[in-house]
Design brief:
Elements lengths: L3 H29 L12 E2 L4 E2 H27 L1 H8 L1 H14 L10 H26 L12
Antiparallel strand pairs: 1-2
Length: about 150
Amino acid sequence: MRTIPTRLFLGFLAGGLSHLIFQDGLLAILHFAYLEPALPWSLKPVPPLGVPLSLNLAFWAGLWGVAYAALEPRLTARFGWLPGGLVYGIPPLAVFWFVVLPLKGLGVGGGFNPLYIALHLIYGLGTAILFRSAFAAARRPDRTSPDALPG
């Protein structure tokens, strides 16, 4: 089960779920500790399609997860799978600081808030954990298939 489409699909799932679970989970912890003003999960519609904000962000995180799935063998070989996930959190942070924020008129880096660094590192870590777990589960033999039955 090492096909490229499977890797990319699992990467998309890992990236999207990493945003919803790990990034938003960290923001929720910070919110309940009175360090972050708003809850992270939002159903506020995002123009032009009116998709809820949380799903919109999870979609974009899923696309970053596809890139992670493509780069994962190299990252794992160079850094190990867990540190490789942390390192992978840096490219989305750089794009956020130097592309997204200026396009939204918020200036380069938007003040270079350290919270953004923590959120993107936790995103990379979560993506690595979820991808590795999903990939391991996808590689397990199906015990109900005729090929898996003895004799």
